Amino acid sequence: MTNIKIIVSGPFSSGKTKFIEAVSERKVHFIDFAVTPQGDCIGMDFGRVEVDGDSALVLLGTPGGRRFSFDWLASDKYMVGYVIMVDSAKPVTFREAKGWIEAFNIEAPRPFIVVANKQDQAGAWSLDDLHLALNIPPEIPVVPCVATDKESVKRVLVALLDEVLKAMAADKE
Question: pLDDT grade, residue 83 (50/70/90)?
């Protein structure tokens, strides 16, 4: 079976764990990953969604702070992309979310989308306003989400996989 890894990242309390819990087939586990040759570890949420009999999406949720190295991501051929979760009702976290986007683009460039989570809450910013606030290029999708809603999370994963397929097609040209 092929495990296709997707990283779920973003600021503290942006909805990463809830996002993974919403679609995971089993209880989400918190596991330690060795991230350096010296054995330094980070804890990550781990969820799994079987796609068909031959492949599964493995969802890895990063810690809320920037407490880990990206080195292991850059060399992981099974990590196809990532989502950056943003609490769209909490603008105080937007600067940190922008930092996550920049860090991933430099350290582990892969297809990604920005997830405007908590769109069901009063005061949630619109997708267009988030694009501007985070200074995201127009070709990067900002996708609405409610991380506790399984169908909403599925739409996000489909949007990310669409970006992965576009990148694969562009690489072939």
Answer: very high
The structure's pTM equals 0.86
Is the separation of the CB atoms in 48 and 26 below 8 Å? yes
Distance CA 9, CA 38 (A): 24
Q: Which residues contact 136 (CB under 8 A, 6 or more apart)?
A: 101, 114, 130, 142
* Tokens 């492949």 belong to residue: 55
Percent of the chain residues topping a pLDDT of 90: 50
Give the pLDDT of residue 6: 93
- H/E stretch holding 44 reads strand 41-52
What spatial distance separates the first Cα and last Cα of the chain, rounded to whole Å? 29
CA 120 to chain centre: 19
Output the CA–CA distances (angstroms, integers) from residue 152 to 92, 129, 130, in the order listed: 24, 20, 18
Map out the domains of the chain as residue ranges: 2-172
Determine whether domain 2-172 maps to CATH 3.40.50.300: yes
Least trusted range by pLDDT, from 14-28, 52-66, 80-94, 99-113: 52-66
